[in-house]
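Researcher: We're teaching a course module on how sequence relates to structure. For the next exercise, students receive a sequence and then see the predicted structure as tokens, so they can try to spot secondary structure elements on their own. Here is the exercise chain.
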Amino acid sequence: MDAKLQELQDAIVGGNIPQLVMNAVSYAIDSRASDIHIEPLKNTVQMRYRIDGALRRVVEYPPNIHPAVVSRIKIMANLKIDEQRIPQDGRAQVSTADGRELDLRVSSLPTVNGEKIVMRIQDQSRNIPSFAELGISGNALRFLNEALALPNGIILTSGPTGSGKTTTLYSGMTLLNKPEVNIMTIEDPVEIQMDGLNQSQVHPDIDYTFAMGLRTALRQDPDIIMVGEIRDKETVDVAIEASLTGHLVLSTIHTNSAVETLTRILNMGVPNFLITATMNAVIAQRLVRKLCPDCRQIVQIDEKTMQMVRTALQKLHPEEAVDQALIENLQFYGPGKKAEDQSTCQSCKGVGYYGRIGLFEVMKMNDHIRQMIIKDASILEIENAAMKSGMVSLEQAGILKALQGITSLEEVYAVARPDAA
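Model: And here is the predicted structure for the students to work with:
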């Protein structure tokens, strides 16, 4: 058993609450967890970690010590201990034994069995990955670099919560972060502190919103502005105004695909001609788990899935750099155990996956797509035009990663929709 897990269990048995909380955080960091869930059930309290996007049960402890655990976490996060009827949010700063600075975002929620606590772990000292490390390659990488090189315009990244949108924007800002440019960020909250950036956190409760922050940023003589999220018409209007007055604007939005982002902005009431004048590129992204390289194995794929794969690969742009041998063989991998050793794989603890990588769909605006937007073309028509001009869909990006043995088709189709045609 892991020594850190043993320490956590010893703290539970000994009833040492401060030690229990610190050991839970310490073991979560060692396990590469992004969130800690402490959930009171009817007869026990379970602790689960979200690792590589999936929740895993770690330990449980008796309900009689749960109020003390909740109080300890609330004290760390500056929350009201005596208020148990309403949800509360706070944050705590934690330093690990090896000197890493961590930010814990703490959320409490009253449930029928007691208060549930979720702690989001944010490592302030982590390195920001490059585009290549995130999983961006081929045409997508070229399109993104070209869009970032433009002096003004809007670059949007879309995807569900927790799909790495903010990390992608930070990777882009790492490339843009030079002494001669002024980069402003308006975020909720500031997730990664980065030297050379002027980062500001919004406070909607005192009317400091994204739109207000963006307007203020424009008076701060910026070159590049990053807005945490475009949520409403007001924010998108100011973002468009900023790009028309010569600024590069980076932001995130919640949609399913790159082309659907255009529809979402149109639905917010933005005229077609403003979208075509300001949009540089739209990214759609998802995270998939990476197969453990030590225990992955070749798997047989059913005919229906294979047909979807062939259909997607036929539409792949000829300029996309792909190893033709991989496409001819169509060999895929899945999680598994080593043939010679039936015991649990030590690298991934028998899960079959270790770490995550992004799938990216990057639509770069060109004159043909602009004309189609002006003519009110359908999503499908714009998507086909974008793919003909080099866009690789999420499904295609996932299949290419699966062919390289990085992930499994099961993971790909869990986040990417198959092409209709």
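Model: If you want an answer key for the exercise: The first strand starts at residue 33 and ends at 40. The first helix runs from residue 3 to 14.
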